[in-house]
Amino acid sequence: MSAPATAGSTGTAAPATTPAEPRRIVPLAFRAAGVGLPLLSVGAAVGFSANNDPNAFVTYAVTMTAAVTAAVWGLWGLVDRRLLRASETLSREAGLIAHGTADGKTGARIPLARYGDLAPVAKAVNELSDKLAAARRDTARAVAESTAKTEEQKTRLAAVLRDLHEGVLVCNLKHQILLYNQTALDILHLAGDLGLGRSLLHFVVAEPVIHTLERLTLRVREGRHVNHEHGTTAQFVGATTDGRILLAGRMSAILQDPPDGSDEPPTITGYVITLSDATSELAALGQRDALLREATEGFCAPIANLRAVLETLDDTPELGPEERAAFQAALMESSNALSERLARVTNEYRSVVTGSWPMSDIHSTNLINLIRHRVGPEAQYGVTLTGLPQWVHGDSYSLVILFGYLIEYVYALTGVPAYDLSVEPGDSWVYLDITWRGPSVPSGIVDSWLDHPLPDALGGLTVGDVLQHHKSTMWSEPVKGPGAEGELLSRLRVPLPPALKPPSAHTAARGGARPEFFDFNLLHQPLATSELGRTPLDQLHYVVFDTETTGLSPSTGDEIIQIAAVRVVGGRILTGETFNTLVNPKRSIPAESIPFHGITDAMVADKPTIDKVLPQFRGFVSGAVLIAHNAAFDLKFLKMKERASGVRFDSPVLDTMLLSRMLLGEGGDHTLDGIAERLGIEVVDRHTALGDSLVTAAVFLRMVEMLKERDVRTLDDAIRRANIIVELAARERAF
What we know:
By secondary structure, this protein is an alpha+beta fold. The protein has helices at residues 25-50, 56-98, 119-163, 182-188, 206-221, 279-298, 300-314, 321-356, 364-375, 396-414, 443-448, 463-469, 520-523, 594-597, 601-604, 610-621, 631-640, 642-645, 656-664, 672-678, 689-709, 715-734, and strands spanning 167-172, 177-180, 233-239, 246-256, 267-277, 360-363, 382-385, 391-394, 418-425, 430-436, 475-480, 488-496, 541-549, 560-569, 572-582, 625-628, 653-655. The strands form 4 sheets. The chain has a 5-stranded antiparallel β-sheet with strand order 2-1-5-4-3. Strands 7-9-10-12-11 form a 5-stranded mixed β-sheet. It has a 5-stranded mixed β-sheet with strand order 15-14-13-16-17, with helices on both faces. Helix 1 (25-50) runs antiparallel to helix 2 (56-98), helix 7 packs antiparallel against helix 8 and helix 19 runs parallel beside helix 21 (689-709). The longest helix has 45 residues, at 119-163. The radius of gyration is 44 Å and the shape is elongated. The N and C termini lie far apart (109 Å). Residues 1-22 and 505-511 have low confidence and may be disordered.
């Protein structure tokens, strides 16, 4: 009798037959005992009864007990020998097979004849052995193929990295080195290995690396990397820890996408740094700085001498007229030539320095947030971000160090515990201001800071060096606070170059302004008739908000897709206190509306729905007067979602469109762009909910002063005058 053997995965069959199956001893023994004991019992009973022995029953019982005992012991011995011991041996052989090799077409074998009654189990073990051997061969083949591919990719990557003229390092968030190339060793002037797993910060100055990673983290967290010109990369200037080598670097973040269905942004799991040796270039710049500084400052003494001589001549009346005239003409000619030369060299010097130092366009909000982060929560003074954002051009790392240093010195001098950081556009500059309530810093002290070396700055840069790299200077001055009767404040002002290519300059223009929307029930408000209503406008707490929607008709199914807001307190736009979120409308965004707001279905697919967002927004605006442009449009969307979200929006609302009609009359452009242009407010990040909120806030603060001139001083005054405008508009539409 033969049975088919299991073939391996290669398709080759095992031998056609296996040894004949052994007889099953244990079942036969149990059957024999089962038949023999009853027969013995019957035979013994008949035999003993025929002898008429009075002790026959006792003899029968003893005989049968002995027979049963012998049968049990015999069967136990047979089971122990044929099953238990055999199964133990079989288990050991199975263990050997499990750890055996799979070089052949079939796995290791167990002789079936050796195991008698356990032959089926041994046969199953042999079949499993064949399958295990096949699986091991498949695994070994897959590993070999993957290893070959990995080695090929590794060879290609090594070839690419070897041929790069820049050093490449891959690090995790703990700054441990995971990969590097030979060029990195050469640039860092290391004779041995960097050492995988060692910290990059052992070899490179930590602050620029950490600062750049913070910039990228902030960019990714806010989702700006999607549309940012440089995506997830940023440049920086660094140095080796011994200070011998200056490095020009670029960091690229390694992103991990969030789980499906999550509304969280991607997370940064590591970064790639490319480095080049900028020692000679930056050292030459440093030497050039020193030489040019010496040359420019060296002009001052000769010019002063020339002017002193002229003054002396003026004080020497005994010289003859002709001599005096010739002398004066020669000296004046020399003085003018030196002055012109000084101006020319100074301009060229600043142009050379600014053009050579690594710089990029920076959004002021990001720059100020990094300054606030550098100051840190443990500082004895606080920094508040205010005003409208702007784009500037500069070296963010040196600017962050500079402003952190300046705030610290102003605090040490004045002891003032709170500072505002803001930007203000000018004709050719963007001014970054540090403002505080207290005395201004004397100009002599400000000038003395120019020679102070900045801690953590590369190459021993001073305050003056950083300013010169940006063609800038600084000064302290008293200024008037917000409002007509604003208190006297002080500020330290630093002009910075405007951005070379701000996003608005190379982003396609979006759709036109939203049409005016009137809902007279929403626009006509009752007076506050309380202490709030009698409060002057410049003393109220405001929240300026804006929405972006799928369309213009909430009653026919259009939905909110973005809502944003910013606080205005004490006449200041608190740019650091904002609410901004995308909303999943649970419907597709019409293609014709996307040019207005730039929001697509993919951008809102994993965002929270409006019933989740509005309670958070209600908490943000609690206790504040709401401000919006064309407010009835936004309020209509909010009111229609009150029941679904379980909140009510019953705060007083002021509409800058109605206020514009009140101040400027019906004729004219009352769009947000038109009003901002007339008021000289530069629009940045227009046609985003947060950008429009910031512009509306700036427009409203300008209007507060204009309203006072019209004797509109309190909240009730503003609501009363706005209601009149609404009534007039309603009557016009009725006719």
